[in-house]
Write a structure and sequence with these properties.
By secondary structure, this protein is of the alpha/beta class. The protein is built from 27 helices and 27 strands. The chain binds ligand C2E and magnesium ion (2 copies).
């Protein structure tokens, strides 16, 4: 509705009118009258606001003189509009300029009128500089906040209390692959896959029910379908009156960390070669199975599987072939068990099988037999076929132990028992085995003492020319004269000495004692014989006792030919340049080498040609059944023929009967050793034996 024009008479501006006086002299509002493009009147407040006197402005200044240049056009237009009757009144603001050049924000309310018959504008002007400044500060603050939020590299979003998106930053748009305007006003159900939307919604509700902060892990799916693992950090925010307004959330992408955590977990729990669980994970699962079995009152079976002769495959065909065999063995074992069972690689050629909830012994045995059978099948490794077998030890929880350590240790012992029994078989753990293991432990402790207390002895067993019966060699055999247990045979303590690392010092003692005996016999003018000394593969690995022997031979007035060494095929299997070098040095010192227990090892034939060996000793196991087992006779004949072809002499061990001696002689065997001729004996007895003419 147009405001009715009113006319102002000049006299009204005079200060004598009470009403106007009050109005015009107020300290708050500036009052002005504009006519013919100039101020016709300004009140004291307006003049003072701009730093002038009333007289200076009235009748002289154009309104635009009080406006900053930037706003002048706008103000001019507003006045023009009113004067041209296009608008009765106007309410607008602009920035004014004081005498001192400072700017003031003003708001004006002007009305068109007629003064003295000519159009004029009468208006009021209020200084709003303070309000504008605070508005500007708020705007700036808002701008700043918006920019900061935009610049945050982590995805960030806001939702209202109904869970609708009300804002986000650039990083959020990029993270989920959507533009902001697709989000605003929508809920998680509109933009996220249902499973995630449910999760987010539930979390939002929980936060709204319990305002404050909230942190949780979840995943986020972007529009390309890719899911990333994230941490949500959310916090509620409220209105000025304290009511809940919504939430702000920030997302931290932890996909990389999760991936490396997963990788580390894999490495810590799985075997890299076979992909099977490793010892650590097996232990964990065993513990878990034991707990469960206690609740259900059933049984857990653990199998310790060791591949027989794996080391030989590794040594002869190479590590790559060995690795392939292990991978294939793992596959075969896995195929024998249920999906709920665990097959783990314990390390090297050892595997473990964990069979929870198996009470039935026949089921356990069926699985063990199956594993043995499947592992006995040939392994084709590129061009070669390799054969291994498996020895399995079985323990049962709770019968054989109440904790994982004991269960595993006992399975290991049962496995050793299976090996001792001839490999390629399984064996249950038994208390007798445990007693045996404890006995071994005790013996080991006492063995350390035996060396210091001079409890070790050497016995001597003659070796004869089979054709003439002449004694040309003797073998030094170790005994342990235990103060309480009596004479202990080497088979009962040498493996322990090897395990405990005592074999080198025991070996040195044997060398010292044997060379001293050989020297005595030489000095006593006994018939010249060569004394052979047994060695363990470990002595070659460390080489200390061999050094000791060579040194001793150099310092004794003893011909190297008076001493011989017996090595086993296992020594040769670790064909190491150091071993070859040691054999060469022994050979240079005149020491002859016999290959002991020949025929029981694995394909050592290849080494025979390359290494400097003088004698083959056919193992006692072939000699024992010579008369009754035609295949043993055939093998023995073949070994003798082969030995001769390679220029070696052949010794038969363990001859107990005349018949055996006859068969060996007929097969062309050179030398013999056995109870038929003499048992091992102490030195005094042996000297008497020699003096009596053998
Ligand atoms: P070996 O070197 O094969 O020694 C031959 C074994 O056969 C000896 O057993 C000997 O007593 C036994 N023997 C000899 N003739 C007969 C026979 O007619 N019938 C039967 N049934 N047995 C016979 P021993 O003395 O018990 O030694 C066992 C093994 O211990 C040796 O086998 C050797 O490998 C090892 N050994 C013995 N002394 C030492 C040593 O000083 N150092 C090392 N490293 N090993 C040793
Ligand atoms: Mg021997
Ligand atoms: Mg032997």
């Amino acid at each position: 509705m147009p405001i009715p024009p009113f006319t102002l008479s000049e006299s009204r501006f005079r200060d004598d009118d009470g009403l106007f006086h009050g109005l015009l002299h107020n300290g708050m509002v500036g009052v002005y009258v504009i006519q013919h493009g100039k101020f016709r009147y300004v009140n004291p407040r307006l003049a003072e606001l701009f730093g002038y006197t009333q007289q200076e402005i009235s009748g002289h200044f154009s309104p635009l003189d009080l406006v900053v240049p930037f706003d002048r056009e706008r103000v001019a237009q507003a006045m023009e509009q009113r004067l041209q009757h296009r608008a009765e009144c106007a309410h607008y603001s602009f920035r004014g300029q004081t005498r001192q050049g400072q700017s003031v924000d003003v708001e004006v309310f002007g009305i068109r009128t007629t003064l003295d018959g000519a159009p004029a504008i009468v208006g009021m002007l209020v200084d709003v500089t303070g309000r504008c400044a605070s508005e500007r500060a708020v705007t700036e603050q808002l701008n700043f906040t918006a920019q900061v939020i935009e610049a945050i590299p982590s995805p960030l979003f806001f939702k209202d209390e109904a869970g609708r998106y009300v804002g986000c930053n650039k990083a959020f748009e990029q993270f989920i692959g959507r533009q902001r305007n697709e989000l605003l006003g929508r809920s998680v159900f509109d933009i996220s896959p249902p499973d995630l939307a449910e999760r987010y919604h539930a979390a939002d509700q929980a936060l709204f029910d319990n305002p404050g902060i909230q942190t949780y892990e979840a995943s986020v799916q972007s529009t390309d379908g890719l899911r990333r693992d994230v941490i949500f950090n959310k916090a509620t925010y409220s209105r000025a009156d304290g009511t809940l307004a919504g939430l702000v959330g920030i997302i931290t992408d932890i996909t990389d960390r999760k991936q490396s955590e997963a990788l580390i977990w894999m490495q810590a729990n799985y075997d890299a070669l076979t992909g099977l669980p490793n010892r650590r994970l097996l232990n964990e699962r065993l513990r878990e199975s034991m707990r469960r079995s206690q609740r259900r009152e059933d049984c857990v079976a653990v199998m310790f599987i060791d591949l027989d002769r794996f080391k030989e495959v590794n040594d002869t065909l190479g590590h790559e072939a060995g690795d392939k065999l292990l991978m294939e063995a793992a596959r075969r074992i896995v195929a024998c068990v249920r999906e709920t069972d665990t097959v783990a690689r314990q390390g090297g050629d050892e595997f473990m099988v964990l069979l929870p909830g198996l009470a039935d012994r026949s089921a356990i045995e069926r699985i063990a037999s199956e594993i043995i059978q499947t592992l006995a099948q040939p392994f084709s490794l590129d061009a070669d076929a390799a054969y291994v077998s498996a020895s399995i030890g079985i323990t049962l929880f709770p019968q054989d132990g109440d904790n994982p350590v004991t269960i595993l240790k006992n399975a290991d012992q049962a496995m050793y028992h299976a090996k001792e029994e001839g490999r390629n078989r399984y064996s249950y753990f038994s208390p007798a085995m445990q007693a045996q293991a404890q006995e071994r432990l005790r013996l080991g402790k006492e063995l350390r003492r035996a060396l210091r207390n001079q409890e070790l002895r050497l016995y001597y067993q003659p070796i004869l020319q089979l054709a003439s019966g002449q004694v040309t060699k003797a073998e030094a055999l170790l005994r342990w004269a235990h103060p309480e247990r009596g004479l202990i045979q080497p088979g009962d303590f040498i493996p322990i000495a090897e395990e405990l690392g005592l074999i080198d010092s025991i070996g040195s003692w044997v060398f010292e004692e044997a060379t001293a005996a050989a020297l005595r016999w030489y000095q006593q003018d006994l018939p010249p014989i060569q004394l052979t000394i047994n060695t363990s593969p470990r002595q070659f690995a460390k080489g200390q006792s061999l050094e000791f022997l060579l040194e001793r031979l150099q310092h004794l007035p003893l011909d190297g030919a008076r001493i011989g060494l017996e090595i086993t095929e296992n020594t040769l299997l670790d064909e190491h340049p150091a071993i070859t070098a040691q054999l060469a040095r022994l050979c240079a010192a005149g020491v002859q080498v016999s290959l002991d227990d020949f025929g029981t090892g694995y394909s050592a034939m290849a080494y025979l040609k390359r290494l400097d060996i003088d004698y083959l000793k056919i193992d006692r196991s072939f000699v024992r059944d010579l008369a009754t087992d035609p295949s043993d006779l055939a093998i023995t004949e073949a070994i003798i023929a082969m030995g001769h072809k390679l220029g070696l002499q052949v010794v038969a061990e363990g001859i107990e009967t005349v018949e055996q001696r006859q068969l060996l002689l007929a097969a062309g065997c050179d030398l013999g050793q056995g109870y038929l001729f003499a048992t091992p004996m102490p030195e005094a007895e042996f000297i008497a034996y020699l003096q009596a003419g053998g």
